[in-house]
Backbone:
């Protein structure tokens, strides 16, 4: 799970948690980030409560984690429910030390199609989580925010005080969350910390559906012999960040000793810009050893999409200074581990299909 170059401060935090386990709530636990957090915390011997309604997450993600030998070190209790129900949130927060809030409708295109639903889940649900955490005496809530808040800001790299015109209702819901987090800390004394994720990728990320993220979708397409679509000219760039870096940021944020006068928000990325054309070549190169025919694959280009940001790179100086965060996995390292997972699970799926066909 942890790179050999893991910062000493983070290693110390992990050792302390293993020696003195805490109780954690992960909302959106069946999503790809939530399930990775679950895997990491269980391996550390923590007690984890997971909340999900499977609107975007999958039971298979939970099954994948709980079957791992490393997961036996911890304790897991699952609650199936919706964060828009306050009683469900209260039940999930009882006896919890830290909340890692990742339940959301996270797609920009989907929020453009249905802004009312995005607001209901992302804002109303978030307020319920804050209320329940306050009532149950939770030590700190760490919540997932987004780099989409920066909109069309031309500054690169993007720092926490950068601002631009937001390009989607999704971004607006996450900015609203940041305002509520600040209010809850100021008015009620609830410790809250936000993490503005850039483009997170890793195992268990859904490759299917209209709103699938680009990395799992392209991996799936190349393995299936299908074409990969790029919206625009391919020079659109993102700060692609492997999910292990996100796990580090969450644990550091939750356990930080510093007392916050105001709710803080931090960028979580690698601080490196990668174009979609570069990304495609990296994925193709990583898979060509498995399927030589992939060497001849090229992307298909389409028109730019509404709401898409042209360039995005994180300034991670603030989180590095305040929380001692260090991105331990580069995009190349993360892609290597991600490709291994998808290739392995693609092979398993093929075996299952063959067995079913033979019955």
Residues:
């Amino acid at each position: 799970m942890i790179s050999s170059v893991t910062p000493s401060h983070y290693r110390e935090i992990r050792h302390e948690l293993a020696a003195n386990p805490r109780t954690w709530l992960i909302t959106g636990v069946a999503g790809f980030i939530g399930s990775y957090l679950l895997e990491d915390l269980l391996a550390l011997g923590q007690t984890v409560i997971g909340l999900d309604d499977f609107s975007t997450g999958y039971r298979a993600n939970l099954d994948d984690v709980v079957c791992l030998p490393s997961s036996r070190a911890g304790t897991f209790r699952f609650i199936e429910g919706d964060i828009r129900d306050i009683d469900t949130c209260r039940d999930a927060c009882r006896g919890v030390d830290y909340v890692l809030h990742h339940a959301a409708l996270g797609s920009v295109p989907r929020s453009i199609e249905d802004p009312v639903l995005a607001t209901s889940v992302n804002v109303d649900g978030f307020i319920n989580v804050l209320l329940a955490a306050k009532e149950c005496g939770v030590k700190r809530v760490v919540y997932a925010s987004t780099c989409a808040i920066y909109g069309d800001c031309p500054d690169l790299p993007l720092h926490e005080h950068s601002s631009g015109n937001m390009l989607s209702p999704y971004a607006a819901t996450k900015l609203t969350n940041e305002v509520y987090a600040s209010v809850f800390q100021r008015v009620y004394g609830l410790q809250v910390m936000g993490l503005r994720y850039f483009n997170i990728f890793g195992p268990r990320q859904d490759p299917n559906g209209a709103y699938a993220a680009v990395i799992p979708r392209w991996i799936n397409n190349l393995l299936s012999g299908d074409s990969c679509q790029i919206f625009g000219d391919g020079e659109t760039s993102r700060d692609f960040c492997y999910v292990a870096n996100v796990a580090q940021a969450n644990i550091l944020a939750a356990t930080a000793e510093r007392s916050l006068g105001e709710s803080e928000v931090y960028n979580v990325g690698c601080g490196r810009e990668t174009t979609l054309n570069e990304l495609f070549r990296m994925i193709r190169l990583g898979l060509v050893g498995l399927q030589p025919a992939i060497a001849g694959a090229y992307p298909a280009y389409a028109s730019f999409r509404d709401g898409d940001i042209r360039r995005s790179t994180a300034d991670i100086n603030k989180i590095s200074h305040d929380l001692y965060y260090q991105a331990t996995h580069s995009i190349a390292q993360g892609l290597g581990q991600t490709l291994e997972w998808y290739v392995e699970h693609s092979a398993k799926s093929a075996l299952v299909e063959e067995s079913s066909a033979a019955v």
In short: Residues 331-358 form the longest helix (28 residues). The chain has a mean pLDDT of 91. The two ends are 38 Å apart (CA to CA).
